[in-house]
Design a protein that fits this description.
It is built from six helices and five strands, in the order βααβαβαβαβα. The protein is of the alpha/beta class. Strands 3-2-1-4-5 form a five-stranded parallel beta sheet, with helices on both faces. β2, α3 and β3 form a beta-alpha-beta unit. α1 packs across α3 and α4 packs parallel to α5. The longest helix has 13 residues.
């Protein structure tokens, strides 16, 4: 029998309780996400982190985190994360989206959020909700 179960190429944690946490932020929200991650860096280090391209690069370089980067959101990263959610590979989504700016890839953003709700993935769109969601991770 061939194993067709989804693979997690980003799994680098030695922690057997590690969860996959996806981090996404629109350009105007990257600073807020960076600040949130910096406050919780000790907890997040214990988990497998995935992020869209620019966000993941910023967090990896500035905070020394191991972050598996998919493509930038507008270049398909939102859809890649959506596919990961549909495959059951995401335990938590932190998506600091900009409520005051329209995005050229808005349909992709809506599709990603729709999948997170459909597949019952804890999703945080601001720091207060992200704090609460993170508090239940091991």
């Amino acid at each position: 029998m061939v194993d067709i179960s989804p693979r997690r190429p980003w799994s680098v944690s030695a922690n057997s309780d590690a969860k996959t946490v996806v981090l996404v932020a629109h350009d105007n929200m990257k600073t807020r996400l960076h600040e949130w991650v910096e406050r919780h860096v000790d907890v997040l280090r214990r988990h497998d982190l995935v992020a869209t391209g620019n966000t993941g690069s910023m967090l990896g370089e500035n905070l020394g985190l191991d972050v598996y980067c998919v493509k930038s959101g507008p270049l398909g990263g939102d859809q890649q994360v959506g596919a990961m959610i549909a495959d059951g590979l995401v335990d938590m989504l932190v998506f600091f989206w900009d409520p005051l700016s329209s995005q050229p890839h808005d349909p992709d953003v809506k599709a990603l959020l729709r999948l997170a709700v459909l597949y019952d993935v804890p999703t945080a769109c601001n720091a207060a909700t992200a704090d609460a969601a993170l508090s239940v991770l091991p």
